[in-house]
Amino acid sequence: xxxxxxxRPNLGLNxxxxxxxxxxxxxxxxxxxxxxxxxxxxxxxxxEAHMWLEPIxxxxxxxxxxxxxxxxxxxxxxxxxxxxxxxxxxxxxxxQGHHKWPSSITRRQFANNxxxxxxxxxxxxxxxxxxxxxxxxxxxxxxxxxxxxxxQQFHAWAHTPKSRLPPLVVALQDAGLAVSRxxxxxxxxxxxxxxxxxxxxxxxxxxxxQRAFEALEKMLFIKLGVRPRSWIALATNGPKRxxxxx
Length: 246
Ligand SMILES: [Zn+2]
Ligand SMILES: [Zn+2]
Known about the structure:
64% of the residues lie in helices and 0% in strands. The chain is built from 10 helices and no strands. It is globular. 38% of the residues are buried. Residues 74, 78, 95, 99, 187, 192 line the site of one zinc ion.
């Protein structure tokens, strides 16, 4: 999803944009290592202090908020900027490519799919290791960053036919613990303006009911005069619902 060019159709298994490089694998290894160090700090700190409830509750909070974080990030990347935007340009282009050719994510190799969130996790979590040993903080950080890192795997599973998924993954999706195929499929309809969350998807209905992203889009339009891509897609593809009041 992150490196597919938008100007060509899906290619086969040998497509170099779908295969993992050693650089991708190194970033995924470093991301997983930082997550595991946080997990170890949480467990060892909790054992030393005989304090398990707070780190476990912090971990649950991390799981719930990671879904929300992926939603806001996905919304921002889908709607604003362009291929030439600094830092995020490649991902913005790739997300648009994913809308055009959604099934290519199922042919993407593991590290190729996860290396971008793995970089973000490595860069943000390493300083926390140096600054903090609190088991509750690390309970949150370990689960939150682990879910962010693997959000692209949850995403790939949401695009994979049920018959090709391991039974455990199907059970997680059916239980609402991993974003379901049906829920994510709702995102893949023009104007691509809902169901942005892709860890558990637990926030998707709430955000849709509250029209949270619409409110943010209107606010940004009023303050900055910037129209999100979903408004443009809505104008192009017909009104799924009246969204842009301006
Ligand atoms: Zn999208
Ligand atoms: Zn998708």
